[in-house]
Amino acid sequence: MESNIAIHVEHVSKEFKVFFDKGVYLKERALFKERNRHEIRRVLKDISFDVKRGEAIGLVGENGCGKSTMLKLLSRIMYPDGGKVETFGRLSALIELGAGFHPDMSGRENIYTNAAIFGLSKAEIDARLQTIIDFSELGDYIDNPVRTYSSGMYMRLAFSVAINVDADILLIDEILAVGDVAFQAKCFNKLREIKKNGTTIVIVSHSLGQIEQICDKSYWIEGGLIRQQGNPVEVHQKYLRYMGERTGTLSAHDEAADAQTQPAKPSEGENEAPQGAAESAPEPQVTGEFTSEDGNRWGNNDIVFTTVWLEDENGVKTNRLECGKPFSIVMPYRIIRPVEDVAFGIGIFRNDGLQCYGTNTEIERIPVEPSQEGCARFKVRYNALLEGWYHLDIALHKADGFPYDYCRSCLDFSVFTIDKDAGVMRLEHEWQFE
User: Fold this and answer.
1) How many Cα atoms occupy the beta-carbon half-sphere of 215 within 13 Å?
2) What is the pTM assigned to this prediction?
3) What is the pLDDT of residues 322-376, one digit of tens each?
4) Quick count: other Cβ atoms within 10 Å of Cβ 124?
5) In whole angstroms, how large is the CA radius of gyration of the chain?
6) 74 and 85 Cβ atoms separated by less than 8 Å
7) pLDDT (tens digit, 9 = 90+) per residue, 299-310?
8) Distance in angstroms (rounded) separating the CA atoms of residues 289 and 392
């Protein structure tokens, strides 16, 4: 094994016996044998990869694909049915929130217990104790029983212990989804710091933006196999496109647009989009869903949106936009009862929840005098969003923020580009050399 390898996974497989209706007591199992029916479910089939020392990788994939199982195999919480898993160095894991904590012990006492599990001596824990407490920001709560902690406080304490044991390998499973924004930023900065100091990091997360910020490589697990590996941005684009096809949000119209993003062939006119491509394709579901009254929509309904859609630069309805090109958000509305003052607002969010942009007519000091029935159009001259999946919020409210009609995640859409710049948005720029 090469000396620079921290994790070696070779042809690993793992299966579980899943019971349909298992009897709890011996009597139930004897009398109701049909309850013992089960199936063998292979979660991991043939997984192989190596992680170098100081490298950070992300594991992505839909629920149940085996990401968390892979972390448990790495941490030796469970063992593979086939293949080999090897880790080299001290290992620290944040796999389950508060795992290893005793609810009746104080935070301070749990630091000693948890750090001892990671292999630290009492003298080593004493030397790190104040650093762990300071990073957790628990203050006077550190001597309270952890059963009185919120989930965010649990996470702060668990994360603080895990990153201060001088581990060679750090495993993280969705743990960064808990906690306030300021502490998440603090965690990211600490992860970058320990990565720079040579710690190997493995992250499982559905927040692809988190992985792209920290990791050098992503592994997309699908059907128990590694379907794609490589640069996180490139892997995530393919993963999101695949999930769009699975959920039906990527239509034949989108596939025609995808064809324009493929590498150019040395044939004449290859880069030009076929004139009839969008017309001949089936009409995609590109309008917002306004049929259900649920937690994603609220307000007093004095004035309401009737639907919403996106239009490209040619005025064609679409849920697939091109970076750098104009588009419009079209929002038909209807007044139900007389309204005094009205502001229209929009918010664009990336699939991981990051707000990319938001504004409203009140912020921009644009007076609005809505008619009984009308249509508001938000025109974007240059689409600066980079390739990825997004969702749209729209709002009708008073100047003081009181909601008439607020619709969250009312429309999903994607952005494609033929360029390979990275991040959230493209800045209009030019290069100069002096």
Assistant:
1) 30
2) 0.61
3) 999 999 999 999 999 999 889 999 999 987 778 899 999 998 999 999 999 999 9
4) 15
5) 26
6) yes
7) 888 999 999 999
8) 12
Q: What's the CATH class of domain 5-244?
A: alpha beta
* Closest alpha carbon to 287 in 373, 127, 407: 407
Confidence of residue 218 (pLDDT cuts 50, 70, 90): very high
Q: Give the whole-angstrom CA distance, residue 264 versus residue 322.
A: 17
Sketch the domain layout of the chain as residue ranges: 5-244, 283-416
The kind and range of the H/E element at 67 are helix 67-74
Question: Coil, helix or strand for 369?
Answer: coil
Nearest to 170 by CA among 179, 180, 160, 178: 160
Q: Is 115 exposed, middle or buried (0-12, 13-18, 19+ CB in 10 A)?
A: buried
CA distance 425 to 415: 11
Q: Count other Cβ atoms within 10 Å, centred on residue 179.
A: 20
User: What is the identity of the amino acid at 312?
Assistant: D
Tokens in use for 375?
């249509």
| Amino acid (1-letter code) at residue 55 | E
CB atoms within 10 A of CB 218: 23
Distance from C-alpha of 344 to C-alpha of 325, rounded to nearest angstrom: 23
Cβ pair 83, 47 in contact under 8 A: yes
Please report, as a single letter, which amino acid is at residue 130. Q
Q: Which residue has the tokens 């999101």?
A: 240
Whether 244 contacts 254, CB under 8 Å: yes
Domain 283-416: assigned CATH number:
2.70.50.60
Residue with tokens 């647009």: 257
253, 309 contact by CB (below 8 A) = no
